[in-house]
What does this fold into?
Amino acid sequence: MVNLCALRDNDRDHRPDCDGRSQTLGHIAISTFRLFCHRLDWRLTYLDNMVRTMKTNSPKKGLAGKLISLTIIAIAILLAMYVWHQRSQSPSTDDASIDADVTHVASPVGGRLASLSVTENQQVHPGDILYQIDPVPYRLAVAQAQADLELAQAALETKKRALAVQQSSAKVAAKQTHRSNTNLALANRTVERLRPLAAKGYVPQQQLDQAQVAERDAETSLQQAKEQESAAAQAIDNTASAEAAVHAREAALAIAQRALEDTTVRAKTAGRVVGLSASPGEMLAPLQSLFTLINTEEWFAIANFREMDLQHIAPGNCVTVYSMIDRELPIKGVVQGIGWGVMDTGHIVLPRSVPYVERSLNWVRVAQRFPVRIKLENPPPQVTRLGASAIAEVKRGAACK
It folds into this structure.
């Protein structure tokens, strides 16, 4: 064995002279190094003795040691194969994140922001008022639509009264036609009776002539009555146009009332308000998003698994999800669906053209990953934040036992 400390003692006489402070520091360093060398020499001596003892052991003990070593190696190989099989059948990934549905809160109507009832990161519940747009213009629009409706209803009533008069005139004309028919029939019979009597001289010829004139007058009256009846029938109007006008005004009133209701924006689901950067008095355009509402009623995890792992994943599988916010809390989840497509960055599609193929060749093939949507069951609120990193283990883990 080489005595390192002896070597250092021999070299100490060759160090250059220094001032007193440097010599003091040097002595301290040398003392520390001596202590380290003595401890190192003791360990090296102990290891040397162990090696000599192992060399002097009998051949039987060496064979037993080899068998023990081979047994340990075999167990390690079997354990590694078991772990590999379990992980291939129950894949896991650390390329996951916590996800939730989001709503971009906006109103279909525009106007001045009158009041804002929420703050950034505030928890809201279904039905809570989020903000309100100035309702005065929309109240006036409702009043105008209501007046237009009343005007259309009045026009409809006038139309109905005119229609009643027209129908009455048509009935009078019909009765006049019936009376003219009766008079003509009477005149015809009178002429038929007087003609043979006048021929025999029983009645004067003048009487027959008067009867014939009355017959022609009756024919003319009948013709006029028929024309009046036809004109009266054609003059009968209907209320279709007036009723359509009323329906149009009713629809306009409903639209105005809906616009007035839309000036008050309420939460449809429970959630957290994020991305709020507005204040009362700001002008908003229709459908302008004011902030985002994260739905806190349902939480999901989006886990990106390699394509060779998808054959071991199916909808309905139990999944244990760990949020990186707190790795000690396992979250139980269920596979809801597996992504059916991702964007291929190496495939360029040009419309109405031949396929584009790059001349370069990638010698390293990276496995594609597909997103798997996992629905979380009753996740702890303190670990569910949109976009938080997560780990997903399919068909294993603390939550799936």
The chain has four domains: 4-85, 94-101+296-400, 102-132+258-295, 138-248. The helical segments are 4-11, 20-55, 59-89, 136-200, 205-234, 240-262. The two ends are 58 Å apart (CA to CA).
